[in-house]
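Notes from hallway chat w/ T.B., transcribed later so I don't forget. T.B. wanted the structure written out for a chain they're using in a teaching module, and asked if we could keep both sequence and structure tokens in one place. Agreed to drop them here.
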Amino acid sequence: MFDRHYYKSLTRSMVLTVFLVSLTPLALVSAITSYQFHTSYKDRVNAHLRELVLKHKRNIDGFLAEKLAVIRVLADLIPESRFRDPAALQAILKSLQDRHHGAFVDMGLVDAYGVQVAYAGPLRLERARYAETRWFREAMRHELYVSDVFLGLRGSPHFIVAVRVRASGAEWILRATVDFESFNELVESVAVGQTGLAYIVNNQGEFQTRPRREAVVGPAEMRGILARASESNGRGDFSPESAAAGIRMSLAAVALDVIHGSAGGGDVLLLTAPLKDGAWTLTYQQDEADAYESLYHARNLSLFAILGGGVGILLMAVLVSNRMVNRIVEADRERDMMNEQVIEAGKLASVGELAAGIAHEINNPLAIMLEEAGWVLDLLDDEPLRRHESHAEMVRALKQIRQQGGRCRDITHKLLSFARKIDPTVKLVQVNEIVRDMAALSDQRAHLANVRISVDLAPDLPEIPASPSELQQVLVNLINNAIDAMERGGELKVSTRREGASVLLDVADSGMGIPKANMARIFDPFYTTKPVGKGTGLGLSICYGIVRKMGGEISVDSVLNQGTVFHIRLPIEEARA
């Protein structure tokens, strides 16, 4: 009786073990690979964004520097008196607009008291007063100046580029207004992905361009970011000048911050780069989910692949465990059958030992009979007995007795030799002699089974290193199996030959053959197709082990209804040396 609960528990344990052992390396490798890929990909994306922002910063700085340089060149080449002429100033503005695609909106000449003495442009700003404006005060302090974005007298966002010049014994400011929309489009052209957004703020965190959608940082947050940048450069206080100095110390770098829990609910990447010698900050923001979209897509695919792999491993574990448990159940059943066959084999071994004892006891009277027959033959050689009328018949009978007694002695000697315990001692043996002995020993059994044994032995075979008793056992097992396979009689042929550095021994029969389904298992221990009580399933397994121990090979060819041939290849002494 088989315990079903035991086999179910064994199946569960095997499934769990196989699943964990198979999945653990997969999970570890996937986790390490995913971490490395995640880190590398983020670094590459961050580096790409830094490079993009830095390149755009250079474009914007170049744009501002170009506009400022144009005004400076005009101030250096054109006398102040021409700027006072409205028609000449209007012609200059028209030329600038044509060559710079409308980037300049208007121009004006402002005296040292902040009064605009000449103006060209779409508005009526003649005699406008700028003495109290911040941009005018800063322009008077610096030779070249770019203002922040402000509303001013025109009531719309704009910024000014200004050059301070000295002419006619006084200082003048030549200023031009840059088209805000063109500048705003230039700043926003850096947008990447669906959520990428670029804008400019000054040191107070005030927007200098108009973002196309809401920014994640307001003026207060931006001032905090600038303050941290200032502190990281060794400054504890915060002011526009200190922030500008702190940013100026890292002009070559693009700072990267992550804003957690933005208004949209997710994290946002925030990159900043200084502009206008640190007076402005170019800010680029993008949702982290958008920036790392490909990474998250690859991560989801990896998780799906791992999940699919886990399901596949589980199914395979169940399948393999069920097969293995079924094999175990089958092996347990075969074990019970083999136990019975081993008992039968033990009985046969006892019978063999008994037969060996009987053969040994028979040897003594056989020796006496042969000796006495020889003595009587010697007596018949005397002259008086030669004349007896039955002398010839008696000599013939005595010679027959000696001949048959010798045959009996040879049979008992061979039986005793085979029945002894196997001696594993290896020595040089002649294969042909062992083949002849084993064929003669099996001749009587073959005759009773209507099987004819023939030998085809190659002459002058070299000796091979082997255990004689083990080689005898291999031959007897193969011969007996061949006789059993020919239930209706047939022919059994044992042949030897040399092939290269090996001696080949073939045992061929004309039996029913071996089905292909059984070919893979014929050398398995306890595997037999004979009825219970007729075989233990150990013969071919023992033959396989002995031949492999000798350094040889054993193989089989079989065709159903035609016969089977076992091939044994044994190395000669030179090859093994």
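Follow-up for T.B.: The longest helix spans residues 293-380. Might be a good example for the class.
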